[in-house]
Amino acid sequence: MKSRKRTRSLILGILCCLMMGSATAQADAPLNGTQPAQWRVIWTADPATKATISWSTKEAGSSHSVRFRVKDSDDRLAEQLAESGRYTGGEFESYYHHARLTDLQPGTAYEVQMVSDANESPVFYFVTAPATDRDFSILHGGDSRSDQDARRRINKMIAELVESSYDNDDLSDDILALAHGGDYIVTGKKMELWSMWLSDHELTTSSDGRLLPIIPARGNHDKGKPFNEVFGFAEDDLNYYGINLSPQVRFTTLNSETSTAGDQAQWLKAELKASRDSNRWLLTQYHRPVYPAVKTPGAGLVSWVPLFEQYNVDLVCEADGHNIKRTVPIRDGKSDETGVVYIGEGGLGVPQRTPKTDRWFLESPGMADQGHHVFVLKFTKEALHGTCLLLDGTIRDQFTRPVRK
Ligand SMILES: [Fe+2]
To answer: How many Å lie between the centroid of ligand 1 and the Cα of residue 129?
Structure first.
C-alpha cells in the first residue's frame, strides 16, 4: 500500500514538473538573487477571505508581487503588490515579501505565483477556509529548532499527510492548515537559522503544488525581530489573535513570551466570551505549557486557565517541553470530565525529553511519552478526534472530545 502511494506521489511529482516548470526541482533550493523562494501562506486573520502569501529573496530587487486567480478558471490574473524589507538578524542578508490577499472567496482554491523583478516562482495553490459548517482537520505541532534532519523528515511526512487527505471523498480528513506552537529555531535573532527553517518549510508543499497555510505562535527561542518579519506581523505586534477555521471552529493563538496577564488576559476574556456561543469548537495554542510534562508551569496557569475553564475551551495545544502528552480533563486544578484537555509538547524536529509520567494530570486516561510527532485534529459535528502521529507513521495516541452541550 505504502509503495503504491509512493509510486503515485512520484508520478504526480513528474506530472507537476511538466505542468508547472520546475516546481519540485526548485523546492528547498538555496536563496539566489531575486529568485522567489521560501514560499509560504500565513493565516493570522479571517482565513476564509484573507491570506498572506510570503516569500524571500537573497537580493533586495525592486518590484515584488503575487499573481493570483481562482484555480482552473479563465479569470484574468490579478496582481497584489508585496510589502518588502530586509530581514533583521545578523549579517545574513535576505529580504521578505508579504502580499496580503483580501476579499477572497471562502473554501476556494487559488493559484498563486510570486514574482520578484523578472523572476517567477512555480505556480502554487492554496485553499481558503470554508464558510460552510463542514468537517475538516488541521495539524498541530511545535518545536522544530534543533534537529534539522528530523524537521525535514517531519515536513515531508506533513506533505504526504496533506496530499493523502485529499485523495478520497472523506471531507473530515482534509487538512486545512498547520498550527505551529513556536520554537521554530534555536536562536531567534539569527536570520541564517530562520532561512534554513524557511527553506525546510518548502518541503511541506504537496507534490501537486498545494501550499499548507501556517498559523504561527511565538516560542521562547523566537526572540527578536525576525519572527514578525517571517510571519508578516507588524513590527510591534504581540502575536495573539483569533481566527475562525470554519463558522464553527474558533482557533485562538496566545503569546506565552510576553505578559500573559494585563492586556492579553483581558483580550482573551473578550475573545472567548464573544466566541463561545457561536462556535461548536474553541481551541487555543501557545508555546509554554501550563500543565507541563517536564518543566514548571508557565504564567498562563494563573492568567489564562480560569478563562479556559469559564468559557469551556475544548482543547489547548501546547509546546516547549519536547515530549508527547495529553492531560486528563482539568477543572479547578483536578481531574474533571467537564474540564479542559491539554496536548503537546513539541516534536517537529527537536531532541525529545523524558516526561515525568507521575504527574497527576498525565495519569490515565491522560498519557505522556516522547518521539518526533505531529497531531492531527479532526472536527466533526459530533466530536473532536485527535491523533498523535509519530515520524514513522505510527499512531501513538488517540482521543475524542465530545461536543459540549
Ligand atoms: Fe520553548
So the answer is: 29
